[in-house]
Amino acid sequence: MPQMKQNRRTVPCYTCGAPFYLSIRDTRFLGTYRRVFCSVDCLVKDVLTPRRNGFFIQQMVENGILKKFEPQPNDNGFVCFSHRLGTHFRSYFEAMVAEVLVLRYGINLIYEPFELLLQIGRRDKVYVPDFFLPDSGVFIEVKGEWLHGSKKKFLSAVQFLGDNGIILIPPYLRKAFSDANKSTGGFDGGAAGIASVCETGLD
Ligand SMILES: [Zn+2]
Predict the structure, then answer these.
(1) How far does residue 67's CA lie from ligand 1's centre (Å)?
(2) What is the pTM of this model?
């Protein structure tokens, strides 16, 4: 069966069920994570589905598990500025995703509003998901690469918030988001020289 090898890298879209191709590298990036989408449209359908977890989130706030995130004054990680949204982001990928979700789909999006206290092993770790969608009650994490134990943090956030409580936007969707952003008039200057590209490229 010549298709066998290809099947190992083909996964079903969580929304529409259509199988789509992932490179070995993308498959490794995802690991056990399987809430994956064939397109930006299919991802958006999922994140717009109401979660009805407002009560759960309120409880987390009351129990101190979820706190308002306030960046330290010396936090200089916000290297990208979207002129069109008037917001700083930590990466070009994040800025691009935000522009697409807000400008193409009209989604109400809050950037890094909360920090989540997670227990990983015996340690307490603070994790700040990238976006929160108040209308559907879902978090979004945009990840171009896993750094500094960020995969462990994300996977334990999935365990804690539930499989539909936080959605990953992995690097294989970067091209699709870039194309979608072009349709909103956004410019994709690529990953190199993120700060300067972001400063000059997004207006
Ligand atoms: Zn799909």
Answers:
(1) 34
(2) 0.86
